[in-house]
Amino acid sequence: MDEVLASVAETIKNFAVIYLVDITEVPDFNTMYELYDPSTVMFFFRNKHIMIDLGTGNNNKINWALTDKQEFIDIVETVYRGARKGRGLVIAPKDYSTKYRY
């Protein structure tokens, strides 16, 4: 996930900024957002938490590693467009309800 974030940072710099936060040093939001996973991606727009419906049941965050750069760019772009329109919950461009495609 680190490689994906680093590689897309230049591409999405016009509409998103990536911040790395160590939750052991900044424990304020750990209980509020249930941050206990090794890697979690959350979206904020103008100090407001933007939820994203990925089909997983957890609309607050992405807590698995995305390996496809374009897939992550599409998610960020969808969140940005929805947040600019004032939406607090946006629908992901891809459904992640099943991890394995049968």
TrEMBL record:
Transmembrane segments: none annotated. GO terms for biological process: mRNA splicing, via spliceosome. The keyword Membrane does not apply. Coiled coil: none annotated. The keyword Nucleus applies. The lineage of its organism: Eukaryota, Viridiplantae, Streptophyta, Embryophyta, Tracheophyta. It is found in: Nucleus. Pfam families: DIM1. Its main location: nucleus. This is Thioredoxin-like protein YLS8 isoform X2. Keywords: mRNA processing, mRNA splicing, Nucleus. GO terms for cellular component: spliceosomal complex; U4/U6 x U5 tri-snRNP complex; U5 snRNP. SMART domains: DIM1 (SM01410). Belongs to the DIM1 family. It comes from Ziziphus jujuba. The gene is LOC107421866. It comes from the Eukaryota.
